[in-house]
């Protein structure tokens, strides 16, 4: 038991220290753009087995261009983040051309898109993104504020 009680404080110290190191830096992705620049969410087909509306969906291509000049030569992780939407939960699922990782993201979270050493002044890829929302999607025009963050090792 003595060995166990000594390892718990050490583990807690490690967890506290690790959380201090996690310091996300917002990256400039202002040169990224979507094709088309504006899109229309469309209702998903109603299935006979469902008792409620299935939600809405849209597809978009995102040409991602992230300014990484400040981090060249540094090792770390790049995350894509989407703040929680006040009206509806949004899910994004994407594929890439291979420079970054494909993935899935729900509003209010962030997910890993790149891990390793930053090798150049920009990190670029093309995402093919499917956006889905619950049937409570409201409004004709809404901006989704995706952004990228870097956690240095």
Can you characterise this structure?
The chain is mainly β and 153 residues long. It has one domain (24-45, 52-152). It has one helix at residues 2-21, and strands at 25-27, 33-35, 42-43, 56-67, 75-82, 90-95, 103-106, 109-117, 122-133, 147-152. Strands 2, 3, 4, 6, 7 and 9 form a 6-stranded antiparallel β-sheet that branches. Strands 1-10-5-8 form a 4-stranded antiparallel β-sheet, with no helix packed on it. Strand 6 and strand 7 form a beta hairpin. The radius of gyration is 20 Å and the shape is elongated. The relative contact order is 0.25. Mean pLDDT is 82; it is low at 1-21.
Topology:
Elements: H1 2-21, E1 25-27, E2 33-35, E3 42-43, E4 56-67, E5 75-82, E6 90-95, E7 103-106, E8 109-117, E9 122-133, E10 147-152
Antiparallel strand pairs: 1-10, 2-4, 3-4, 4-9, 5-8, 5-10, 6-7, 6-9
What's the number of extended β-strand segments? 10
Structural class: mainly beta
The percent of residues in helical segments reads 10-25%
Number of domains: 1
Task: Assess the beta-strand content as a share of residues.
Answer: 35-45%
Uncertain parts: 1-21
**Gap from first CA to last CA:** 34 Å
Which sequence of SSEs, written as H and E, runs from N to C? HEEEEEEEEEE
- Average pLDDT, rounded to a whole number, is 82
The shape, in one word, is elongated
By DSSP (H or I, 4+ residues per run), the number of helices equals 1
Using the CA coordinates, give the radius of gyration. 20 Å
The major β-sheet equals: 6 strands, antiparallel
